[in-house]
Amino acid sequence: MQLGLVGLGKMGFNMRERLRQGGHEVVGYDPRPEVTDVPDLAGLAAALSAPRVVWVMVPSGDVTHDTIVSLSEVLSEGDLVVDGGNSRYTEDGPHAELLGAKGIGFVDAGVSGGIWGLTEGYGLMVGGSDADIATVMPIFDTLRPPGPVEDGFVHAGDVGAGHFTKMVHNGVEYALMTAYAEGYEMLSAEPLVKSPQAVYQAWTNGTVVRSWLQTLLAKALKEDPDLAEISGYTDDSGEGRWTVEEAIRLRVPVPGIAASLFARFLSRQEDSPTMKAVAALRNQFGGHAVQRVSKSG
């Protein structure tokens, strides 16, 4: 199958390679001349045979919106656009409407797999009409991990369902990572335990907590046993926030996901204003000692 691919970053570049290895013809566009196959989006459209399928794999937000608007101007009726980035699901309806006004189809695809997707395959969660999903299915089949279709791929529902599902997926991921990390800290704090890394390595087989994330933590600890080469500062890319916001809208309790999101916020504070206020209160009502900051800081 022929596919246009917009965005050849860490994931897009590997996706192009996996698809080419699977026998597909992929024409990629990226602003970086060293990786792009065509000079611009007009060149991408010209290089593809109608009806075209173009997969957008760029950062969420304005970049995605601007790319879809630009594609609407160079594609034709009967073509199809797939948004495979981490867009918020609420953006999918307007994008589908914008493209649909020109007879262009739209599919939203949540993609999981990171830098390992090239070799291991990508977990795919997609939203859109049955007909549009069927059109892109040969691409999905090559990108997804080997095995039964239902293990690694889901047509989650209508437009927006793919990105909503990926949002929840990433919220769950936040909570899982925090749980594994808290377990590591407890193991490290107990002198009886000689090697937290060995424990996590042992958990990769036969235990109920085994998972790919847990295996990756065992790998990270083997490469850097005390995690001395990195700081605890942890960013969030948005999906965890969206998950908590949607949980509030839906009145669904997600305390684990919410706590993991707030833990990331806490990681960015060199000196917590909250805990300084707690220390001040303990001093005020109980006369408890506080640690004073010296003039030198």
UniProtKB/TrEMBL annotation:
Transmembrane segments: none annotated. Pfam families: 6PGD, NAD_binding_2. Gene3D superfamilies: N-(1-d-carboxylethyl)-l-norvaline Dehydrogenase, domain 2 (1.10.1040.10), NAD(P)-binding Rossmann-like Domain (3.40.50.720). It comes from Mycolicibacterium arenosum. It comes from the Bacteria. Belongs to the 6-phosphogluconate dehydrogenase family. Residues 162-296 form the 6-phosphogluconate dehydrogenase C-terminal domain. This is Decarboxylating 6-phosphogluconate dehydrogenase.
